[in-house]
From TrEMBL:
Signal peptide: none annotated. NCBIfam families: nifE. It comes from Azospira oryzae. InterPro entries: Nase/OxRdtase_comp1, Nase_comp1_CS, NifE, NifE-like. This is Nitrogenase iron-molybdenum cofactor biosynthesis protein NifE.
């Protein structure tokens, strides 16, 4: 078995995965080794997933070893922002062509790494394997090792060619690259009793910046974010954290579990979406840090901060309650948003008519059931035809989803709000829930919906009579002049 096959097998056997949690060791290994079928990677391949997971490390040069289309299709797939370096925004690729297929692309890759280091001098270079070089046998691990020795810079191979599986598998393979080559390779200048890691936080539209001030006020230092607005050297020192919050278990559960196993860093799954969930995350991390030797008064200070911020948030949300009370929402997303956004919207009096369970864990399902009091409104898949029927029949007043399903809502003449990674408004923290509610309010009360819902002239019952009157007016009364009737 090749090194790549071994790595994929180990990720699929991840005991922390929701699918594997209830299985014994033997069943877990037997049940996950399934051959992929054509089209299994639709919606994003393993390479795309690895790039999504790692590209928010902003001071690193991300070099895609493959045809130029691989870099073009994966660049800027999320609106992740940086507070410093912007080299992550530059698209680096070896641009493999037919001759490289014949003669191999290893020398071209080596020259590309040298050019990046000479021109940009980043703290590290991440090299992403794609389908083409993987199929012709390019050994990117060997090239990266040779380049690192020659140029004195970390050159990290991310071996996640697209054909090995889905985007979610690629997320985990990207995490494995950090575990194998980055985390634990440096020591921080200093440590504190309140150092934490955020795992699965990507700083989409600057969401991290809405949460970080809360931790700063409590004296909790975010040692490393994996990977939003991340820095290579910070991620390399992540093994010295005292605790961690996992914000996307489907993507990086392997990172959180292995860091607990290797370095004794306990973690819990939390969410920064919604007033109650943000408060819950602050309470849990404070209690966890106290157990890890943090200040004894940390939970008390956290409660004071929570009381102040909740009061401010509810005061800002109060004007929306009367306008949104009883409005029905169809939520088509996945992961932690499947339950955290449900809780947030119920807090302002909205009714959830359905929430998708895509990319969720068994724990996520239990949380939805607990929040909503039933599992009747949970669904794993919602075909566009069924989604359109629900919206057309006015079962929901607004839909929250990703960009790919917005056209179903628009066809049904239903207000729609972007909630996935393509959005332009930050939803995290106490400020984030106000932003979300404001976006929903603007969508629901936009005057365009009154206009588009009016029947077209040919859809009115008396359209034939109107047409005859217009024709008569045009031919007889106007006598060739413009009719203003």
């Amino acid at each position: 078995m090749s090194a790549l096959q071994q790595k994929v097998a180990s990720v699929l056997e991840e005991p922390g995965c929701a699918t594997n949690q209830a299985k014994g060791e033997k069943e877990r290994k037997a049940g996950c080794k399934k051959q992929l079928t054509p089209g299994a990677a639709a919606g994003g391949c393993a390479f795309d997933g690895a790039k999504i997971a790692l590209q928010p490390i902003v001071d690193v040069a991300h070099l895609v070893h493959g045809p130029i289309a691989c870099e073009g299709n994966s660049w800027d797939s999320r609106h992740t922002l940086s507070s410093g370096s912007h080299i992550y925004r530059t698209g680096f690729t070896t641009d493999m062509n037919e001759m490289d297929v014949v003669y191999g692309g290893e020398k071209k890759l080596y020259r590309a790494i040298k050019e990046i280091i000479d021109k940009y001098d980043p703290p590290a270079v991440f090299v992403y394997q794609t389908c083409l070089p993987a199929m012709i046998g390019d050994d990117i691990e060997a090239v990266c090792k040779a380049a690192a020795a020659k140029f004195g810079k970390p050159v990290i191979p991310v071996n996640a060619p697209g054909f090995v599986g889905s985007k979610n598998l690629g997320n985990k393979l990207g995490g494995e690259a950090l575990l194998d080559y980055v985390i634990g390779t440096r020591e921080p200048e200093y440590t504190t009793p309140c150092d934490i890691n955020l795992i699965g936080e990507y700083n989409v539209v600057g969401e991290l910046w809405q949460v970080k001030p809360l931790f700063d006020e409590l004296g909790i230092r975010i040692l490393a974010t994996i990977s939003g607005d991340g820095r290579y050297n910070d991620v390399a020192t992540a093994h010295k954290a005292r605790a961690a919050i996992m914000l996307c278990s489907q993507a990086l559960i392997n990172v959180a579990r292995k860091m607990e196993e290797r370095y004794g860093i306990p973690f819990f799954e939390g969410s920064f979406y919604g007033v109650s969930d943000m408060s819950d995350a602050l309470r849990k991390i404070s209690a966890l840090l106290v157990r890890q030797g943090g200040p004894a008064d940390l939970p008390e200070r956290a409660e004071a901060l929570i009381a102040r911020e909740e009061a401010k948030a509810w005061a800002r949300l109060e004007p929306y309650k009367a306008r949104l009370k009883g409005k029905r929402v169809l939520l088509f997303t996945g992961g932690v948003k499947s339950w955290s956004v449900v809780s947030a919207l119920q807090e302002v009096g909205m009714e959830i008519v359905g929430t998708s369970m895509r990319k969720t864990t068994a724990n996520d399902r239990e949380k939805v059931k607990e929040i909503m009091g039933t599992d009747a409104h949970m669904f794993d898949e919602l075909p566009p035809r069924e989604m359109y029927r629900m919206l057309r029949d006015s079962q929901a007043d607004v839909m929250l989803s990703g960009g790919r399903s917005q056209f179903v809502a628009l066809k049904a003449k239903t207000p729609w709000v972007e909630i996935n990674q393509e959005r332009h408004h930050a939803l995290a923290g106490y400020d984030g829930i106000v932003n979300l509610v404001d976006e929903i309010d603007k969508a629901l009360y936009n005057p365009v919906w009154q206009q588009v819902r009016q029947p077209a002239p040919w859809e009115r019952p008396d359209w034939e009579q109107d047409l005859e009157e217009w024709q008569s007016c045009n031919q007889e009364e106007c006598a060739g002049e413009v009719c203003h009737g």
